[in-house]
Automatic annotation (TrEMBL):
It comes from Fluviicola taffensis (strain DSM 16823 / NCIMB 13979 / RW262). This is Copper-binding protein MbnP-like domain-containing protein. Residues 18-204 form the Copper-binding protein MbnP-like domain. InterPro entries: MbnP-like_dom.
Length: 223
C-alpha cells in the first residue's frame, strides 16, 4: 500500500513538473522560411525577401477538454523575433497531458498598451513601441517584393492599434494534434499572395489596412 502511494505521489510530482516546448516557425506553402530567404510564388513568379519579422505572443496557455488552463507560463509576453532564434521557442510548465487546445494573444492587449512602456520583451529598446502615440507594435514585417510600388521595392508593415475599432489584438485558438511538442507555424502563403504590394507597401500607424493585414495573419497560424 505504501509503495503504491509513493508511486502515485511520484507520478503526481512528475505531472506537476512536466514541461512542453513551444516553438514558432515561419513557412510558405508548408516549407520553412528564414529571414533573407527568397520566397517565390511558383504560379506568378512573384518574389519576396523578409529581413524583419517579429510579433508579440501574450498569455500563451494550454486548455483541456473542459477549456480549463493546464499550463503555466512565467512570462506573459513573448517577443517572437526570427532574427533571434532563442526568442522563437520556450518551455511551458504543463500540469497534465490531456491537451485539447492552445490559446494565445497575437499582439498586446489594450490595458497593457495604456499602462505605458515596460521592461523585458516589452522594453521600447526592442523597437516595438510607438513613442509618438504610446502604444505597442503588435507585428513588424519588413523586406522586399518584386511587386512593391516603392522605388527600392521595399515594404514595411508596422501593425498595431488598441483603441476602439482600431484594436489590432487578436486571440488565437488552435486544436492540439500531438502530445510531444507544440510547433506553431505562421503560414505566409495567403498573406503574401493576397497583399497588393504595388499599392500598399508602407504601413506605419493604425489603419484599416493594418487591421486587414492583422486579420490575414491571425488566420494563418496552424499547429
Amino acid at each position: 500500500m505504501r509503495i503504491g502511494l509513493v508511486i502515485v505521489l511520484w507520478i503526481s510530482s512528475f505531472n506537476l513538473n512536466a514541461q512542453v516546448k513551444v516553438e514558432f516557425q515561419l513557412c510558405y506553402k508548408e516549407q520553412l522560411v528564414h529571414l533573407n530567404d527568397t520566397i517565390i510564388n511558383p504560379l506568378t513568379q512573384d518574389e519576396w525577401v523578409l529581413n524583419t519579422f517579429k510579433f508579440y505572443v501574450s498569455d500563451f496557455e494550454i486548455l483541456n477538454e473542459k477549456q480549463e488552463s493546464i499550463s503555466s507560463d512565467l512570462t506573459r509576453f513573448h517577443l517572437v523575433d526570427f532574427e533571434n532564434t532563442q526568442s522563437t521557442s520556450w518551455n511551458l510548465k504543463d500540469k497534465q497531458n490531456n491537451r485539447e487546445v492552445i490559446r494565445f494573444g497575437f499582439g498586446i492587449d489594450s490595458l497593457t498598451n495604456v499602462s505605458g512602456a515596460f521592461g523585458g520583451g516589452l522594453d521600447p529598446v526592442n523597437g516595438m513601441y510607438w513613442t509618438w502615440q504610446s502604444g505597442y507594435i503588435n507585428c513588424k514585417i519588413e523586406g522586399y517584393s518584386s511587386k512593391s510600388g516603392a522605388k527600392d521595392h521595399s515594404f514595411e508593415y508596422h501593425l498595431g492599434g488598441y483603441s476602439g475599432k482600431q484594436n489590432a489584438f487578436r486571440t488565437i485558438l488552435l486544436p492540439v494534434k500531438t502530445a510531444d511538442s507544440l510547433v506553431v507555424q505562421l503560414d505566409l502563403e495567403h498573406f503574401l499572395n493576397s497583399t497588393n504590394f504595388q499599392e500598399v507597401h508602407h504601413i506605419m500607424s493604425p489603419s484599416q489596412s493594418s487591421l486587414n493585414f492583422v486579420e490575414l495573419l491571425s488566420k494563418s497560424f496552424k499547429l
